[in-house]
Design brief:
Distance between the termini: 22 Å
Mean pLDDT: 96
Order of helices and strands: EHEHEHHEHHEE
Strand content: 15-25%
Helix content: 25-40%
Structural class: alpha/beta
Number of helices: 6
Oligomer: single chain
Shape: globular
Length: 186
């Protein structure tokens, strides 16, 4: 199957650590996602339940005629006490340790990289064998690549995923699905 992962579009409050904080998307951000998905072939549409993804998925649903299914497992990494804050509001050393090793140094009361990867991995393992578009977040997309392709966290964080980036993977189902990246549009 082909798995298309689409990062939500621009939000009204950019440049913040938006994990589980429910930021509103801009109309232009929603339109950019609809435009990016226009040439994508898919028979199933899934979305994070956060409005910055879900509103884009609803607009895609209106265009495609497919019903968008909400799945909270496709949420962004939970930044805990840092959620919704600007990086400048966080102690620089703590933030640097997190970016270097989010497993060993997760945000206070936040989610570890392994938990995000496991959550997204469970969602992937339950996918039906049909071409799917998932409207989600940059962290969840990186976790999917790590889970499916066996890449280390440091390698997945090197992938540039701006707003409305589309990452496509060919997935081979099995007890532990595997994949190959077949496209990235930014």
């Amino acid at each position: 199957m082909i798995l298309h992962l689409l990062r939500h579009g621009a939000v009204e409050t950019p440049n913040l650590l938006l994990g589980h904080t429910d930021a509103r998307p801009t109309p232009a951000g929603i339109a950019a996602c609809v435009h990016r998905s226009a040439d994508v072939a898919f028979t199933r549409l899934i979305t994070s339940d956060l409005s910055r993804a879900a509103q884009a998925a609803q607009a895609i649903s209106n265009e495609s005629g497919l019903c968008a299914r909400l799945d909270p497992r496709w949420r962004e990494l939970d930044f805990g006490a840092w959620d919704g804050k600007a990086p400048s509001q966080i102690e620089a050393r703590a933030l640097a340790r997190f970016w270097d090793d989010p497993e060993a140094f997760p945000p206070p009361q936040g989610e570890r990289w392994s938990a995000l990867k496991a959550r997204v991995g469970h969602a992937i393992a339950e996918l039906a064998n049909e071409d799917t578009l998932i409207v989600t977040h940059g962290g969840a997309m990186r976790a999917a690549v790590a889970y499916l392709c066996g890449l280390a966290q440091s390698h997945t964080w090197a992938i540039d995923l701006p707003y409305n980036a589309l990452l496509s993977l060919k997935v081979w189902p099995g007890e532990k699905p595997t994949a190959q990246i077949i496209g990235l549009k930014t």
